[in-house]
Each structure stands twice: as C-alpha cells, then as structure tokens.
Amino acid sequence: MVQAFGVAVVGFGWMGRVHTQAYARVRHHYPHLALRPELVTVAEEVPGRAEEAAAQFGFASTTRDWREVAADPRVHAVSITAPNFLHREIAVAMAAAGKHIWIEKPVGLTARDARAVADAVAEAGVQGAVGFNYRNAPAVEAARHLIAAGEIGAVTHARIRLFSDYAAHPEGALTWRFERERGGSGVLGDLASHGADLARFLLGEIASLTADTAVFLPERARPTGATAGHARAAGGEPGPVENEDYVSCLLRFASGARGVLEACRVSVGEQNNYGFEVHGTTGAVHWDFRRMNELGVSRGTAYQDQPVSTVYVGPGHGEFAAFQPGAANAMGYDDLKVVEAHRFLRSVAEGTPYGATLTDAVHSAAVLDAMARSAERGTWVSPEPPG
Ligand SMILES: NC(=O)c1ccc[n+]([C@@H]2O[C@H](COP(=O)([O-])OP(=O)(O)OC[C@H]3O[C@@H](n4cnc5c(N)ncnc54)[C@H](O)[C@@H]3O)[C@@H](O)[C@H]2O)c1
Predict the structure, then answer these.
(1) pLDDT in tens, 75-113
(2) 3-state class of 259 per DSSP?
(3) What CA–CA distance (Å, rounded) separates 276 from 199?
(4) Which atom of ligand 1 lies nearest, measured to the CA of 189?
(5) Share of residues in the chain with pLDDT > 90 (%)
(6) How many angstroms separate the alpha carbon of residue 14 from the centre of ligand 1?
C-alpha cells in the first residue's frame, strides 16, 4: 500500500530546486517505494521565489518563515537546502517537531553543528539523510566494492581532487559562501566536504592529516540584489573574502594507506574536475565525475605495464538499473539526487538508514575542522569527531 507523504523544502536556490525535482521523479525510477512524496510547502526568504517554485512544481503552499514548516502537521519530511549558517537551527527545530530531514552538506559551520543535528535526529527518532551525492554514483559504488574485495591488492595511496571555477570570475558576487558567519569555511565545506566523504567511503577513516590553505581572490563585489547559486555582481561595493579558496592536504588513513586531497573553487580552466585515483599493490582504480559512468580499472598480476581498461557501468552496478537499461547510457548529476531521495524515503518507510547519514556528516566535518586546525598550526593533526 503506497502512502502519501508530505514533504517541504527550505531554501529554494540551486539545491532546493534539485531536491524538489528528485521528489517529483523518485517514483518514476523506484515504483515500489512505499511512500508517495507530496510537495506540501516551500519556505524561501527572497520575496516571490517560493511562489515561483509553487507555480512551477506544484507545492500546495508557500511561506517566508521556515518556522511555519516545523509547525505544519501536513509535513512529514523536510529538505534543508538553505545556506550553511542556517542548517543547525533549522534541522534541530525540524527534528524536534518530529520531521525527518534530508539536509545538504556540510551540515552547519563546524563539526559541533553537525553533531548537534545528529543528536537532535537521534533523540527525536527520525531519519536524517545528507547530500553527499557523489558516493551515489554507480561507478563510485563499484570502485568501493572492487577495493573492498581486494581486486587492486592492499591500498597503498590515493589522490582525491575537486577543482572548480565557480568562484574564479573576479566579478563573482560576495555571497554567503565567502563569509565566515554565514558560510563557515570556504572550499573546505563546499567541495572538500565531498572529498572527505569520498575518502572515508572508499578507504575508511582518516587517522591524521596536514593541510595548507590559501585565498587567491581576497576581495569580491557585494551582491546588488538577491542571489542564488554563483551570481555575478559587477559594480557592487567591494568586501573581503573571509574563507579559503584552496586547500591541499596529506592524509594518513587508519589502514596505513596514504592520500592527497586537493580542492579549489577558483581554478580557471577546471569545470567540476572532481575525481580520484586509488592505487593498490596489484592494481588501481580511477574515476572522473565528468565521465561519471566510467571507471578506469587496472587489475591482474603484471605489475609493470599492466593495462588499464575502461568499464562502462551498467545495470549490475549500484543504482544504475533504476535509470538506464544498459551500460553506457549516461546517468547525470540530478540522478544522483534521485538516488539520494530514494534512500532517504526508504529509510523513513523501513525505519532504518540507507545512504549517507548524519554520522557521516559528523565525520566529514571533523576532517574539515582538522584541516583548518592543521593549516593554522602548520602541524599534523587527527580528526576528532565531537562525542
Ligand atoms: N550536494 C551538492 O552537490 C551541493 C551543491 C551545491 C550546494 N550544496 C549545499 O546546499 C546548500 C544550499 O546551496 P545552494 O547552492 O542551493 O545555495 P543558493 O544560494 O543557491 O540557495 C540558498 C537559498 O536559500 C535561501 N534562504 C536564505 N535564507 C533563508 C531563510 N532564512 N529561509 C528560507 N530560505 C532562505 C536563499 O534565498 C536561496 O534561495 C548549501 O549548504 C550548500 O553547501 C550542495
């Protein structure tokens, strides 16, 4: 028996839109899902934006005050897709009101914020899913299985990269992302959070690390109107960039493997150059988000000159079969959010978590805090997830 299930979205920028589309599509791909999401309400502070969302996607109501969502008995689950500084307050209030939450990374400004949200979710007995979407790619899941099965031998070292040009334009607006108070860290929370999650997902816990950070564009123009995503603000009053554009980090995994994680938001010539290379004693596995459905795999007994083959993921890998009937029919970024929506709603229906949870968010955030600490002190440090 399929049950109607009221959902709400708080913050209708890029991610609010993607979550909404995922709710709308999830039953197309997962017809056996026991819940049928219904778009009850959308909260957005920019005047008119919620109304536009309702007109386009069919939300039954709109509000400018997210507190009304917490008090709304029609709402069973809430997507929290507002800027980082609001994550903790909104998520704790929603969980306390008995709403299941699907929240975007990095879950607040610090590991303490992520911990507070994790605790609120546990105390309320609701489900909490987190937007670490790259781990949902079938090729990434395939890489994880291959590594865990020992197909590349014992892992020796890995490189994880997240390079983007989204903030490279000198006229890129000084949005919440560049402020300590509203964004928290810079590229750490924005991109390295995904890298930390991928590192843990593929290779296990990080025992210690040492990091270096830099700001390459120290000043930007303040926005002259409401923003969403990565807006431009030519002519706006200049203001300081308060958080890092770039991080490089050496990792030591608990397994003994070594790693390098590098992320940058101002890399001219790089568009979503996200990926990893993992090396083992007998092979290697490579993934590049821009060729999301391909995995480079080298395995065998040759050691030297061992060929690398391209595997096109297919219905046998991860969630691929829910989207395409055969290998090399491409899945896209938004599909990863449909996978996430499905795992979230399935968690609610079955009362047990599937996919990335708030525990994963606490661990990723602890790695980011450790990177910031290390960059400040110039020393090796250990990530310490707050208890
Ligand atoms: N998983 C991913 O791949 C991914 C990608 C981009 C962003 N994110 C995360 O998603 C979140 C949102 O990012 P975005 O790119 O969509 O940002 P955005 O700036 O495009 O959207 C944020 C929206 O929240 C609204 N908002 C601000 N204050 C509000 C309030 N008090 N009540 C209701 N709405 C409010 C803004 O007006 C805006 O429309 C961030 O935490 C970010 O880290 C995740």
Answers:
(1) 999 999 999 999 999 999 999 999 999 999 999 999 999
(2) strand
(3) 9
(4) 43
(5) 91
(6) 7
